[in-house]
Amino acid sequence: MPTIATVFRKVLVANRGEIALRVLRTCRELGIPTVAVYSEADRGALHARAADEAVLLGPAPPRESYLRIDRLIEVARETGAEAVHPGYGFLAENAGFAARCEEERLVFVGPPSKAMRAMGDKLSARRAMEKAKVPFVPGTVEPLADARAAAAAAERFGYPVALKAAAGGGGKGIRVVRDPSGLEGAFRTGSGEAAGAFGDGRLYLEKYLEAPRHVEVQILADAHGRCVALGERECTIQRRHQKLIEETPSPALDEATRRAMEETAVRAATAVGYVNAGTVEFLLQEGRFYFLEMNTRLQVEHPVTEFVTGLDLVAEQLRIAAGGKLPFPPGGVKRRGHAIEVRVNAEDPDAGFVPSTGVVRDLRLPSGPWVRVDSALFAGQEVTLHYDPILAKVIVWAPTRPEAIARMERALGELHVGGVRTGAPLALAVLRDPRFRAGDFDTHFLERFDPPRDPARDEIASVLAAVWRHRKRSRGAGRAEHADGLSPWTLLGRGDRQRRVRP
Amino acid sequence: MKYFVVAGESEREVVLEERDGGYLVTVGGRAFEVEASEGANPDDLVVRISGRVLSASFEGEEEEVRVGIDGESRPVRIEDERERAAHEAEAGASAGPRLVRSPMPGFVVAVLVAEGEAVRADQTLLILEAMKMQNEIRAPSAGRVERLHVRPGETVGSAAALATIAPLPP
Questions:
Q1: How confident is the model at residue B140 (pLDDT cuts 50, 70, 90)?
Q2: pLDDT over threshold 80, residue A476
Q3: Which of B5, B44, B74 lies nearest to residue A418, judging by beta carbons?
């Protein structure tokens, strides 16, 4: 069997941030030359610096850079890239892009456009699951014509209901409606958000489960008819459908349910002719699980699966895309120990999780035994509103869940990202919560979570704030001794800072 | 030097004296000896306190600062005696029109009310998109829309004025 590097003489990574860097790293290890792409806002970005070649796509807004299919195809052709890895987000689940790559004889490192279409449209996915006898959440399998049709369907399935984008995924365009009065507004904003994000405003409705857990199964399928499950990931700690903490194995599954869920995931993938890496998401409530959707891409949280299986999922994706066979023994892939991931998102947990922007400074990333940090952060980097808020991921492994929690606590204690707010301090508080430690939580855990205050730490912070203020004041007094109050160096530095922070 | 510091739920009186190139800081009857030197930036310090050496990061201006230690981060409000007196003098202001500010930088997708329109508390005034999520900006109280400061299609910064809501006459 030829190596992957002889099949692909060059790979283009059509993404940015931590995931682009993560894919580029595997390519480098496999000896495959790479092409990175970047927007004007990402000129100095780490992913651009990590590739053998880097090409400018266009201005910062994704529509003018990372989402420009024609330009990406052109760059692939000009650089001689033979395969395109889409990462997650942007064009990763755009069947039009996958189809265009197929036409251009560029290998898309992901599923065939046909399978992506079948799963990407949540309604056609529900119909396919119905046929494959995969259980899914009760609700409509056709799009809702208008708010009135939504109201009728809501009456039929009973409130509360969830309005979801047919073209959606990753929580975008989802609205939970508890009573008829909220339906019209939810339909309007949900449809608007879906139209803005996907160019398709169609919504469907399903019964809203009150206290589910979110558990998903990683699968790998090759082009030779083999599909294996690589275990589950527990992703229940989320807010507004944006995940914060993921782990494997799930503390909520017994061995029989795990096996049933894995078999169902393989059946779901096989039903749409799936090839490459994918994730089948389930809601789990009272021991029963329901198909939610399939993510036809590499997931953000794939590193926890890598830690317990010892696999490099990007390498497996490339092997499959190169026409290789899955190399695993018939018994499947052994898993070992426990892994946890925390997402470091640019958001302010103290202000309702609003997105946070700024220039990164005083950056300290954790390390040490069994800690992995997937990050594209650097000091001086400007975090803008244009892109996904995921700045970095911290992943740890340990033999057992309690040890993994202790390790993650230790790692997050070492983390500091200055200049922007992140959700990491909140994740640290969750890790210390007794219910989290007991594995006893559902998808509402985070929205109801009120981190306990620690008066001793408040006191230390008060002392240090006084020291800081005092020093700042003395410094200011020293500077005022210059005739004009400011030295030329200060003025120069100040001008430079102002330029950097201006949007 | 005396400071009034709010961190968490309680306010503390913090007294700071310079001593031997460091600081003696007293709070709630307890004394802390603190040594400090500049870290990566003038605003980030390496501090020795209570037998520990730690990195502490400070972001803010004067009275509002965010203190980052041990992977945690907390907002702290700090004022000296002069500032305290000035704020107490201001605090007599009556309830006039309320300014609705943008909680985040973003893009105004839609404005759902018009100037002069009466609004309920919690009614959606406009929709702001940031990082691909649409956020409903709601009225803080019932009233009348006195002024709209933004139009659809505009990009706004954090804390930008969005709308002014005047109280309804009693």
A1: confident
A2: no
A3: B44
Q: Which CATH number fits domain A138-207: 3.30.1490.20, 3.40.50.300, 3.40.710.10, 3.20.20.70?
A: 3.30.1490.20
Which is nearest to A415 in space by CA: A366, A479, A376? A366
Mean pLDDT of chain B: 88
Find the catalytic residue in A297, A343, A372, A401: A297
Q: 10 Å Cβ neighbour count for B161?
A: 14
Interface test with B, best of A175, A462, A470 (most B CBs within 10 A): A462
Strand ranges (E), A249-355: 276-285, 288-295, 338-345, 347-348, 354-355
Quick one: fold of A4-109? Rossmann fold (3.40.50)
- The answer as to CATH 1.10.1040.10 being correct for domain B98-166 is no
Q: Is A407 noted as a catalytic residue in this protein?
A: no
Residue of A nearest to B1 (CA): A470
Degrees to nearest 5, angle at CA B95 with B89 and B101: 100
Domain boundaries, chain B: 2-90, 98-166
CATH class of A213-448: alpha beta
CA dihedral A257, A259, A264, A265 (to 10 degrees): 110
Instruction: Please report which confidence band the pLDDT of residue B2 belongs to, taking 50, 70 and 90 as the band edges.
Output: very high
CA-nearest residue to B103 within chain A is A354
B42/A351 Cβ within 8 A: no
A387 touches chain B (CB under 8 A): yes
